Amino acid sequence: MWKNVLGIVLVAAISAGAAVGTSAYLINKNQPVFSASGSASTFNQPIRLAGYNTVAAENTDFTTAAESTVHGVVHIKATTNAKQYADGGNQPQYVDPFEYFFGFGGRGGFQRPQPQPRVGAGSGVIISTDGYIITNNHVIDGADELEVTLNDNRKFVAKLVGTDPTTDIALLKVDAKDLPTIPFGDSEKLKVGEWVLAVGNPFNLTSTVTAGIVSAKGRGISMGGGDKSKIESFIQTDAAVNPGNSGGALVNTKGELVGINTAIYSETGNFAGYSFAVPISIAGKVANDLKQYGTVQRAILGVQIMSVGDIADMLGYPNLPAKQKEELSALKSKIKVSEGACVADFADRSTAKEAGIEKGDVIVAVNGAKVKSANALQEQISKYRPGDKVQVTVDRNGSTKTFNVELRNAQGSTAVVKGAADSAEVLGAAFSALTNEQKRELGVSYGIEVTGLLNGKLKDAGIKKGFIIMVVNDQKISSPEQLERIVDKVFKGNEDDRYIVVKGFYRNGRTKVYAIDLAE
Fold first, then answer.
1. What ranges in 108-241 are assigned the alpha helix state H?
2. Which residues, other chains included, contact 284 with Cβ-Cβ below 8 Å and sequence gap of 6+?
3. pTM of the full structure
């Protein structure tokens, strides 16, 4: 009996060995290997074993991720107040001397039509139990009032903590405790083909969940137009995203936040197949900086970069200027790799150049993370702060070299960049709204009075106590709070546009216009 069993085992072992040996021999000889269907493949491909641990798409369970994340996504209502011509329809009508002298139109006592406030909507993600919410900058940009509605229908007034137009990320805060949150995942470990869920409020349809796969990573879509400062390294998915989803969550099947839904590719304005999300590796760092510093601590290498593939594409452009064509050809002649970010030039203060990186080098990795394009390099560097040291790997004429680079900010230092200061402190003044009696006395229907001055921007500009402020940046001012909102908005915007234009008059009738630079 034992002899029969051993005989069967021996025959099975020999048969298996013969099969494996024959396949190996045929592959090494580049002979066709026949498939189970009986057809022969003439293509030289390695044999791959089936992945028995993979899960069929139809067996993927989205319910746990959906149920755990839908409570962490909020609806955001952003209201932008219209510029007012007067305080209200029931107010007495006055001749406005300021408008008379500056030609704003109203020279009689008639009631002009009142423009209506603009209301927009989007989504946000709760990232802290004490009420911090991350969203897109374009959802709240220019808004005077922000209202947040939770999944359980509770409503809160939200305060804007800070914004970063460069990455289209903003951070809000509501006064609440023990809120449901969505934990951060690792967007860098996300793989193309992996299932993801988009959670948001499209068309004000609250708590909507859609599913799709990651279609691509490190995608640039030129949302900033010609603005080269924009950081675009999006996660591209085919999960349905529509207007109102902006600022919502992109989560994996574990219910972890891997991105903030930001844009769609569409010719109609509605979903047409692809959506784009800011990776949480970028958005999370930006939100943390806004909370901790009030502004983003942005590190730079000090290089001008181009994707390797873009150089060849540009050389194919018709009517390319001869000088530019010559420069691109010179760069292309040095490139020996098919992927990476080519160093086309350096900034005036470049830490990369100081470290030894040269023009024409192709950056292929940062701290071991592979860099396939200029967008991918932006994504990697945006994770760090000025003062951090990174290892930059480059390909130089076919040779690999690694450089240790200390990152700096745009000012060329590693110092912490301060956020926007308090508007009252910067202006150095006290204000009071005009009473109805003062309005009748002055013959105006709006305005605020400078009631006190300390050292600050207003005093430096020459404004004196008693000055009546009527208009700031083309917006008519009816209260000190309105002025503060305008100044705060200026501080949170582009650093190159930090100024206000103040128009008003003194009680002796002398009108004045002051241009005030708020930059430090």
1. 137-140
2. 127, 134, 184
3. 0.72
